[in-house]
Amino acid sequence: MSTAHPSPAADAGGVAPDGMRVGGSDYAPPLWLRSPHVQTVLGSSTWRRRRGAQALAATGAVTTGHLVDGGEGVRLHGLHSAVPGREPRGLALLLHGWEGSTESSYMRQTAAQMLDLGYAVFRLNFRDHGNSHHLNEAIFHSNRIDEVVHAAVDIAARFAPRPMIAAGYSLGGNFALRLAMRAPAAGLQLAGVAAVCPVIDPARTMLQMERGHRLYLRHFERNWRASLRRKRDLFPDHHVFDDATLQLGMRDLTDWLVRTHTDFGTLDDYFDGYSVAGDRLSSLQVPVDILMSADDPVIPLDAFHGLALPAHARLEISRWGGHCGFLLDRHLDGFAERWVAARLDAHADAARTASAHTRLATAVHAGTHASDG
Question: Which residue, 206, 322, 312, is CA-closest to 268?
């Protein structure tokens, strides 16, 4: 028996392999789904993408493609979905992982969950993801947070429903957390954020992939090489790297990217640029929920040990789940997508309640002054 719906506060119990106490998540898959590798591989499988497409189609939503403004001439592509004839209760911005896209299974299933709850959804492609390589000459890298923040502001202005909430998976979870950090300064009214298996410490994540099962490192290397090759084909005068460069391993290829396509002097500085480890999230003003699995084969669990989080940020750790898997049953439905929807809906409800109280207080104040007059 698997738990189909996340509860606000449950304790899975148990101890992680590294000795960390595991608790806070009520995800409990059937025995055959308790392998982190089964979870991770099936989670990104063709069957699950198809399941996500079916779930999205069942909502009756109309989906349209849009180019949004990333600032300084940058254009990013995304998909807006809304159910015709229904006023949305808010707008959910969804961010995918590295070498994923708007059509990743978790993006589709999360969109379906949010649409069923009455929200409109915008799934954003990062630069050079989801067939968007042609939109910008420069290559994607993980420190391009400014264009994502700028795009989020554009999306909020263009699609009016409030409140706005956001979620991300893996590297998208890292971007979502940094978006939450930057939202107040950018004038972005963000009611809450949810992140699933986010990259916390990029340097430690690289080590985890190098020391872990080679399947994951090879997967990312293969997809990244294909992306870079496509970029070179589209902009041959600008990108002149040779095939030998493309055959470099993950660490050396990342080092090449840093030296030739960023302003960071070293690989360590580049990793530090998008790290959210330690106390970097301590000044969060936006409410945040984080879901992590203790058996994630890609993101190291110990990166979460030293996180200094404010009172309105919550970390939930599940004994199982793999990397962004959290599969529930043979249909490959997901706990994480339901968890995200529940957490975002709660943040949006809190924002609506706060807004109603503010309007009431304003009306009472105005009425008092009118009586005095």
Answer: 206
